[in-house]
Amino acid sequence: MEDVNYPHIRHLVGQDWVASPTDGDRAVINPANGQEIGRIPQAAAEDLEDAVRSAESAFAQWKQRSPTDRGAILRRFADLLRHNDALIARWITLDEGKPLAESLAEVRASADHVDWHAEECRRIYGRIVPSRNATVQQLVVREPVGVCLAITPWNFPLSQAVRKVAAALASGCTMILKGPAEAPAGCLAIARFLQEAGLPEGCLNLVWGNSAFISSTLIAHPVVRKITFTGSVEVGKHLAELAGRHMKRATMELGGHAPVLVFDDADAGAAARALAANKLRNAGQVCISPTRFFVQQGIHDRFLSELVEAFEKVTVGDGLADGTQMGPLCHAGRVTAMENLVEDARQNGAAVLTGGKRIGNIGSFYAPTIVDTPDDNIALMRDEPFGPVAVVSPFRDIEDGLIRANGLPFGLASYIFTNSLERADRAAAGLQAGMVSINHFGLALPETPFGGVRDSGYGSEGGTETFDGYLSTKFISRNSAPAR
């Protein structure tokens, strides 16, 4: 039965909201109770072609609009997000599962991202390069690349999409957005409130359906000039291959398996409490979530004791219920993944200190779990859990810690806890990651770059770098003297 408080999911093509029910329509499930709350339509080839033509037509006008005009529309959109934050947050909690307070925080942070892009787009500058010839002027200008495709994930269904949409629109591009089937309401809110904010027809098109069909069709389309994707390493590599085949620009924000180095001069209790709160945010379904906890031998036992105590105090339940601190995982498949990883740890000599089991038989709940292992010979040390599971292991010295932290091909986020400036600097320089946060969690702000290295992808979102993927550089050399 559909939830009357949940929106009707449809495609947006141009200015029209369309959806023709098909046998392939997919159910949207509330992960707290397993009940159907909506249906996802499936885009056909004609829908995708209409979306491309709509975005192409809109681009011809939108790229000519001044940054001031584009920013004004984005600011109205940010205001609408804030004005409707309670409604949007409820939608996010219904389909993704996170506690309502976290959903509200996501909506408000998304509005901040939009405001920042609205202001920063006024500072997309070119430059004049001094010439070797007095009659020649050399200009470097930056132009929007054109129609972009964005494919966004379910774990932060509003904010992950907002980063891409705001950057594209602010730079003068138009976009086709393919949202996540598991948690679609966030992307629907973006399209709905951008339309209300006065975004011209066709600048943002929203489509739903089979991911492989949509990505292969649109990446190959000659009108689409750029793809931006947030998701798994495996899918990202496939999409990057498709983009390379068609010479399309790509931004890839892929998986991590974030290491934490907790040195023996750190406050074990304070570090454990801070890490517990950050680890269990969104039930651990965060690409920059700390997952591999390397703790120096001198404080390993004390840190573990504090971490277990913090995990066991967490209240797990329906994200709409008062007092809930951690909600369900987004879908049943995530629970199965947790069970498999924890069972592998048990079979290979690791100790499960708390949790290690699903909660109840209704919904997709899994207990906050801590696994202690003496080495890296369990699957949890290789495979990102993307759930409420922390794996802890002792390390000897900074060299040992860095070797183990860098032992995987991922390089998104990393964390350091120490009271030594020298250790902090050495560890930050040695970690192979796109982002390093020391003694706090200072990532994912609108004004700072967000992105990874190695298998975690390439390109940045946020900061002044946010526009780089949406702009082409053009060099113009002009001789003011008439040709003779």
In short:
The protein has 13 helices and 20 strands. By secondary structure, it is α/β, with parallel strands linked by helices. It has 2 domains: 11-254 and 456-473, Aldehyde Dehydrogenase, Chain A, domain 1; 258-445, Aldehyde Dehydrogenase, Chain A, domain 2, CATH 3.40.309.10.
Q: What does this protein look like?
A:
Helix 2 runs antiparallel to helix 5 (159-171). This protein folds into two domains: 11-254 and 456-473, Aldehyde Dehydrogenase, Chain A, domain 1; 258-445, Aldehyde Dehydrogenase, Chain A, domain 2. The chain is built from 13 helices and 20 strands. The model has no long low-confidence stretch (mean pLDDT 96). 36% of the residues lie in helices and 21% in strands. It has 484 residues and is α/β, with parallel strands linked by helices. The strands form five sheets. Strands 14-15-16-13-12-17-18 form a seven-stranded mixed beta sheet, sandwiched between helices.
Tell me the span between the first and last alpha carbons. 78 Å
- The overall average pLDDT, rounded, is 96
Please give the order of strands in the largest beta sheet. Answer: 14-15-16-13-12-17-18
Query: How many domains?
Result: 2
If helices are DSSP runs of H or I spanning 4 or more residues, what is the number of helices?
13
User: What portion of residues is helical?
Assistant: 25-40%
Shape: globular
The CATH homologous superfamily name of the largest domain equals Aldehyde Dehydrogenase, Chain A, domain 1
What CATH architecture label of the largest domain applies?
A: 3-Layer(aba) Sandwich
Structural class: alpha/beta
Instruction: Tell me the name of the CATH class of the largest domain.
Output: Alpha Beta
Q: Briefly note the CATH topology name of the largest domain.
A: Aldehyde Dehydrogenase, Chain A, domain 1
Overall strand count: 20
